[in-house]
Write a structure and sequence with these properties.
By secondary structure, the protein is mainly α. It folds into two domains: 75 residues, 434 Repressor (Amino-terminal Domain) (Orthogonal Bundle); 31 residues, no CATH class. 68% of the residues lie in helices and 0% in strands. Helix 2 packs across helix 3. 17% of the residues are buried.
């Protein structure tokens, strides 16, 4: 396995920060809560192993109180739900994403807000 040091360091930093105020964030307890072995988590955090499956990363993010998409992006993975959404309308959604590709985060947030207001 190639490993992913950036992902591992981010997870370790987040977990250790949580451990300062919550004893449930030891390596063993966190690994058990995620559903992976402590040995595997240790090697992931050290950048020796690739990140776990997307579902496990989403669980990590939930436990660490961070945006799952941030951790998924660091792991070079995507939320499996996105694939389902794109497959619902495969002839238009990929094109929409390509069209929006060069927009700033601020522009995209404004666009999302405008669409959310239209739905309400």
């Amino acid at each position: 396995m190639a490993g992913n040091p950036k992902f591992g360091k981010r997870v370790r930093d987040l977990r250790e920060a949580k451990l300062q105020t919550d004893p449930k964030f030891t390596l063993r307890q966190f690994a058990a809560a995620v559903g992976i072995s402590a040995t595997f988590l240790s090697k992931v955090e050290r950048g020796e192993f690739d990140p776990p499956a997307a579902e496990k990363i989403i669980k990590m993010a939930e436990l660490l109180d961070v945006d799952a998409d941030e951790l998924l992006a660091l792991a070079n993975k995507f939320d499996p739900e996105l694939e389902k959404i794109i497959k619902e309308k495969p002839s238009i959604l990929p094109d929409l994403l390509r069209t929006l590709r060069g927009r700033s985060e601020e522009q995209l947030r404004k666009l999302m807000e405008r669409e959310r207001r239209r739905k309400d």
